[in-house]
Write a structure and sequence with these properties.
single chain; alpha/beta; six-stranded mixed beta sheet; three-stranded antiparallel beta sheet; globular
Length: 144
């Protein structure tokens, strides 16, 4: 399914026998943003990417600036939504921290709660047949 699949690193097949198969095209979040902004026409149709580092990016921002960083990520990904959808891409967002579902979805990383819900919206947890937990959303990030 084209869109974003968001999950914890511990659910990758690398770490569990029946884990989620990682996409072979691995890149950092900033490289991914650059590519979808400047080189989207060169990305192959049906591409599959594993994007890492979103937790580090949010963590490195000052606590007061994290919401602004999250809103900027939401805006940049939203601007690329139509192009990503036309390319029928599949993007895994792999988090080193723990995804916590409460009133909203947050990412606990290095004892900090990071506002991942502001980027991807209010997501519902899903579980596959192998008990891997993940969140799915389309490229069209309508809320966040």
């Amino acid at each position: 399914m084209p869109g974003y699949q968001i999950f914890e690193k511990s659910y990758l097949r690398t770490y569990r026998a029946n884990g989620i198969e990682p996409h072979s095209n691995k890149m950092g979040i900033l490289d991914f943003l650059r590519d979808v902004k400047h080189e989207i026409s060169e990305l192959p149709r049906f591409s599959k990417y594993q994007v890492v580092g979103i937790d580090d990016l949010l963590y490195m921002a000052d606590a007061e600036e994290r919401r602004t960083v999250a809103h900027n990520l939401h805006r940049q990904l939203g601007a690329a939504a139509q192009a990503l959808q036309r390319k029928l891409m599949d993007v895994q967002i792999v988090c080193k921290g723990k995804l916590i579902r409460g009133d909203s979805l947050t990412l606990k990383y290095r004892d900090q709660l990071l506002p991942i819900d502001l980027i991807f919206g209010d997501l519902i947890k899903q579980v596959d047949a192998q008990k891997n937990e993940f969140y799915l959303t389309s490229f069209n990030l309508t809320s966040g």
